[in-house]
Specification:
Blueprint (H helix, E strand, L loop, with lengths): L13 H14 L4 H6 L15 E8 L7 E7 L14 E6 L5 E8 L2 E10 L8 E2 L2 E2 L3 E3 L12 H4 L1 E3 L3 E6 L3
Amino acid sequence: MPAFGICRTHFNCPFRQSFAALLLAVALGLSSDRAAAQVPAPAPAPAPAPVPGSLTVVVEGARNSRGQLRVSLFDRAEGFPSDQSQALRTTRVPMKATGDSVRFTGLAAGRYAVAVHHDENGNEKLDTRLGLPQEGWAATNDPRPRLRAPRFHEAEIVHSGDTRVVVRLTY
């Protein structure tokens, strides 16, 4: 018998068949442990769905109680801050003498920006003169007034659960 007990004369020798199977497994990069490990594990249970929360926007700094307050919630930069058709939600409320607030409910966690407009004369638009606002406006994070409208990334807030933000009107 040759070295290592390999029988060359008997084609159906059990030792020879076992050795051939082992060589094939090694050539394919498999071992008995890896072959058993390749059985797919059961899929993990899905994470529970996040509970929607609310976003309360408190508006301060109104110079009077005339007209209405328009508050728009955006979830992307397109249309922010002036195109209400691009807003996720928009609401209008009559102005009060003090402490105006608007609450958006059922919001998933995420990034949002809020634009506020004090429409004093009720014409449903932000009145401007030479490109500058003549009525009150605000955005989340109270971006500094510039010679342009605030950008979404400047007003973006992170919302998770129940969130309360305060914005101050600029005239």
